[in-house]
Design a protein that fits this description.
Elements lengths: L7 H13 L2 H8 L3 H15 L4 E4 L2 E4 L1 H25 L5 E8 L3 H15 L3 E8 L1 H9 L5 E5 L8 E8 L1 E5 L11 H4 L3 E6 L4 H13 L3 E7 L2 H9 L5 E3 L8 E3 L13 E8 L6 H15 L1
Helix pairs in contact: 1-2, 1-3, 1-4, 2-3, 5-10
């Protein structure tokens, strides 16, 4: 059987194109022409002897072979990038103070920070998982170097806009516990809400949307932490509003089938804040790795 040695550069183009949903956009991000990207994809298919992409509507989708290759390609690229970072930053030492919004705590701690620590064992990371308002206070008080937080609408001189994510109505997976009376709107019964303590971006967005739609509501449960909100919503005390990030299996996004009368919600921006315009080398390295993880 012929042995195949994959070109990592070609795999990076393949993964980037699939993630972005467009190989034209991938060409722009990678600094290549669309014809060069097409040539790379043809090379990949020639190596495999089978297609990795198929037409779907106006776009492209992965074939079964492409879907299988995608997982391996991600692992190969991650290992390659980790090795390159380790070699370049072998002498990196010092400390970094990072603040993480609660929605990202589990993912960032296990994935990004774990990888960073393996690559830079001499760098000490002080991580704090907290609410937006606390993170901004700590950052402004010089107690954090970096903070990953939701966009609160306040100008941030040393911040990068990472992404925008849709807010969602969320309720219990268990239909018996889902706190939505099918006749709630007709009977003008207040919608029970499970929310974080004020001030909270998601709480404000939910109340504003309900008020604009003329839907009565009541605060059924509040919590200073996200874990309390998840537990109360899963128990059926009410519905809540968050993004889909870190959603526990006991909760689900509510669609038009569950409650077609629930009003639409806006997107919320995600920012990576820096305490200063110029960071020390360990903080800058972590900044770049976090940004890469969230935008790749």
């Amino acid at each position: 059987m012929r042995r195949i040695t994959f070109d990592l550069d070609v795999l990076r183009t393949f993964v980037t194109g699939v993630d972005m949903g467009s190989f034209a956009k991938a060409a722009d991000r990678l600094g290549r022409s669309t014809s060069a990207v097409s040539a790379q994809l043809k090379k990949l298919e020639d190596q495999l002897g089978m297609p990795v992409l198929r037409k779907e509507g106006r776009g492209m989708a992965t074939t079964p072979a492409g879907e299988s290759l995608l997982g391996y390609a991600r692992r190969l690229l991650e290992l390659n990038d980790e090795a390159a970072t380790a070699v370049r930053g072998a002498e990196l030492a010092g400390s970094v103070r990072l603040g993480i919004q609660q929605d990202f705590g589990e993912q960032m701690l296990t994935e990004v920070l774990g990888r960073f620590t393996r690559v830079h064992p001499q760098v000490r990371i002080e991580a704090r998982v907290a609410r937006n308002s606390e993170l901004m206070e700590l950052l402004g008080g010089g107690k954090l170097d970096l903070a990953l937080a939701w966009d609160n609408g306040v100008a941030a001189p040393h911040a990068v806009d990472v992404n925008r994510l849709p807010m969602r109505w969320i309720g219990a997976t268990d239909e018996a516990r889902l706190a939505l009376d099918g006749n709630a709107r007709d009977a003008h019964e207040p919608l029970p809400l499970v929310m974080m303590d004020a001030p909270c971006i998601m709480r404000s967005a939910a109340i504003r949307a309900l008020d604009q739609a003329g839907i009565p509501w009541r605060i059924a449960f509040t919590s200073p932490g996200l874990s309390g909100v998840w537990a109360a919503a899963a128990a059926g005390l009410g519905v809540t509003v968050r993004t889909e990030l870190g959603l526990p299996p006991s909760l689900r996004v509510l669609d038009t089938h569950d409650a077609p009368w629930l009003p639409p919600l806006p997107d919320v921006g995600l920012r990576l804040h820096r305490a200063e315009a110029e960071l020390n080398p360990p903080a800058q390295r972590l900044h770049d790795i976090v940004l890469q993880a969230l935008t790749s």
